[in-house]
Amino acid sequence: MELIIRRPKSPEEFRIIMDIMKDAWGMADYTEAVPAHFLRSIDDNGGLVLIAYDRDTPVGFTLGILARSDSRLYLYSHMTGVVSKYKYKGVGFKLKLAQRQWAIEQGLDLVKWTFDPLQGLNAYFNFNKLGVVCNTYYRNFYGEIRDGINRGLITDRFKVDWWIKSKRVELKVKGLLKPPSFNEVRNLGEVANVTEEIAGGVRKISEIKLDIDSEVVFVEIPGELSKVRDYSLDLANDWRLRTRQIFETYFAKGYYAIELISEKEDEIRRNFYVLWRRDLKDILNGKVPWIG
Fold it and tell me: What pTM does this model have?
């Protein structure tokens, strides 16, 4: 693969990005896609739109706008997508690195975006590959979305912070701060939700714990949300509502989501968030609860 990442140069390329969106999110049509004319307007007015090519084949994009919270200016990364044939080949990671470099060149130190906290692959990418942190939870942020990924699901979201100049992010993007196994850290805290298997690889939450006081709290999410949804949409949304209680409770108590531990046993994947009650400065300095 000969990957080229650059800004679009023509109206046609902005329309190509709509095609990438449609493929990446399994959209039936372009109703949920960001229009090409708006993409061009964003790119021409201080935002960032990047398109990725494998030689002459368009394979991915990222889209961000300048935003402000209190007195801090940051880049809000609205979408990053890769066509299905090129997923899990490092395209998304390289797009985010290019986005990070651009933001640093603009004098920024923070990028934010939202994602579904029950999507394990996205969580692994965001926390473990990029080094985001999170203590912000939004209920039903987008309302109903009708694409192939979100159809029928309540659209709760994490809003994550990517402190792009921090030691944590430097270590993460270089692969120098890897997640532990669950067995290595399970004695550091408690799991906030008890789950049980009800079908092959499909689990349900049988109990939640909102009064844990350990420094570390683990939160299990589905091994594959799509598998849970295919088994029962009601079960998928039960996961949503019950983990919502957990995340909102512990974020309010001062915990940050810092990692996702993802492991397979007998071909069955299980995912656990690591929440840590620690000063943000320590977290951004690269500290983790399982190392000294």
Answer: 0.96
Query: Which are the contacts of 220, defined by CB distance < 8 A and separation ≥ 6?
Result: 191, 193, 195, 203, 205, 270, 271, 272, 273
Q: What is the pLDDT of residue 141?
A: 97
Confidence (pLDDT) at 287: 98
pLDDT at 292 over 80: no
**211: helix, coil or strand?**
coil
| Residue located via tokens 């007015």 | 45
Chain centroid, CA 31 distance in Å: 23
pLDDT band at 240 (very low <50, low <70, confident <90, very high): very high
Angle at the Cα of 155 (from 153 to 156), degrees rounded to 5? 125
Give CA–CA dist 69/76, Å, rounded: 11
pLDDT of residue 146: 83
The alpha-carbon radius of gyration of the chain (Å, integer) is: 19
As a whole number, mean pLDDT of residues 102-129 equals 98
- Decide if 236 contacts 225 (C-beta within 8 A): yes
57: left (phi over 0), alpha (psi -120 to 50) or beta: beta
**How far apart are the C-alpha atoms of 266 and 182, rounded to whole Å?**
16
User: Could you tell me if 147 and 26 are in contact, meaning their C-beta atoms sit under 8 angstroms apart?
Assistant: yes
Nearest to 192 by CA among 203, 208, 177: 208
Both tokens of residue 20? 């990438």
What phi, psi does 21 have (nearest 5°)?
A: -55, -50
Beta-bridge partners for 205: 195
The closest alpha carbon to 138, from 163, 113, 121, 120, belongs to 113
Question: Is the separation of the CB atoms in 217 and 278 below 8 Å?
Answer: no
User: Cα angle vertex 282, ends 279, 283, to 5°?
Assistant: 90
